[in-house]
Amino acid sequence: MKLSETLQPESIALRLKSRTKDELFDEMAELLKRNPSLSSIDKSTVLKSLLEREKTATTGVGKEVAIPHGKIMGLSTICSAVGVSRRGIEYGSVDGLPVRYVVAMVAPPEQSQDYLRILAKVARLLSDPSFVETLVTASAPGDVMERVKALEGGAQVTATEEQVLMLFELKDPDYFDQVVEYFTEIGEISATVLDARNVQAFLTKVPLFADFARVFTEGQEFGHLFMVIMNKGLVERFVEGLEEIVGDLDEEGRGLALTIDVGLVRGLRARTTL
Hints:
four-stranded antiparallel β-sheet, 2 domains, Mannitol-specific EII, Chain A, 23% strand
């Protein structure tokens, strides 16, 4: 599921009226209620779900961004709303900065996987300067909708019957959380992650990987190695997504990605789309 599939133009406010966090939650609940999927659910229920989640930890994730969210029994699908505050709102964010960009979301409890994937997508969108610029300069909610759809569209890929083992070495610790979020976002692809303490020991003990041990570990004090079985037709788009996070892999210090053909796979539900 994509963020654009959970969002209605009527649920986008480019000039929030709220001045306090309490007012903001009430206003975002009102925006969410404009989604037809929430027509039978009281605004008070929507607001309560956002507030209950906020009690566990702040959803002000930093850099003027907040992603309040919650779960509602009886809701049929995930719904979201977008708001922009021109003046900023004190929120208790992790970095102490006022919040200007808000994406609120509610979901059915049984759709936890899609819920987590979309939360990860929202976090990535709000870290994209071009999307933030759209929020600032948009003259109408439709502009935001079109930008979300464009950023989520990506390149078309063709699935095949062939499977490959993707090895991705992350060299910069600053990107670790974002890369983990990316793997969460793409969903059904399950990855194994090794850190610098056991990467070399693992690789040198497995004949298939022995030749790669030096490539992945030489001179590295930090490193995480992600290993995942995936459809060969999805590799190029997958790597493009990684480069959107860490930068051009051909630049020194970014990371290293390579694939190995896999002759037999059992116990994996193959994914055909990103």
